[in-house]
Amino acid sequence: MKLDNSLPLEYRSEENSNRIFGFWLFLGAEIVLFSTLFAVYFTLWNRTGNGPGGKELFEIGPVLIETFVLLTSSFTIGLMINSMRQGLKKPAMVFFFITLALGLVFLGVEITEFVTYINEGATISTSAFMSSLFVLLGTHGAHVTLGLLWGAGIMIQIKREGFTLDTANKSFIFSLYWHFLDVVWIFIFSFVYLKGMM
């Protein structure tokens, strides 16, 4: 296998470069998925029936916590990749752990938010608005859950093997995925929550 040592570890082999390119294509499909969910939400956002709308339902506190922890986790996964590129295993593992811990906090707040909605009588079957909201937020939350499991698996592999062509490539691809979830959340924060509170 021919390696280009002038490139970062995650790009050094042709196979690794192809995997990263393939993942960008996958993210293109994910953009289509979330664009569709946003289109459905924007079509149904005022179809509340007898149920509550965003103004009655949304609270700024939990949303700001979710936004802060997810944006911070995007920063820490960037620090993890930077540490990896410098060959600093311990700091990289610490930043990876912090990223996943913040993701877990985000998920906890989101689940609490869902339970609050349900306790207030706003369920997936309350209205078209609620069903589109639950599907959009739930799909993003499911992606975060998958990311937490995937990231934990990569961390175990790094702990055992250190940074190799394979583990560096997986870590970098994971960071792309995590940044993508962050970008999607910014759209949710801006166009679902903030717009809904106005």
What does the model show?
The protein is mainly alpha-helical. Helix content is 80%, strand content 0%. It is built from 6 helices and no strands. The chain has helices spanning 14-44, 54-57, 60-85, 89-119, 128-161, 165-197. Helix 1 (14-44) runs antiparallel to helix 5 (128-161) and helix 5 packs antiparallel against helix 6 (165-197). The protein is elongated, with a radius of gyration of 19 Å.
Individual helix count: 6
Mean pLDDT, to the nearest integer, reads 93
Number of strands: 0
Profile the largest sheet.
none
Rg value: 19 Å
In short:
This protein is mostly helical and 198 residues long. It contains 6 helices and no strands.
Topology readout:
Layout: H1 14-44, H2 54-57, H3 60-85, H4 89-119, H5 128-161, H6 165-197
Features:
198 residues, elongated, mainly alpha, 80% helix
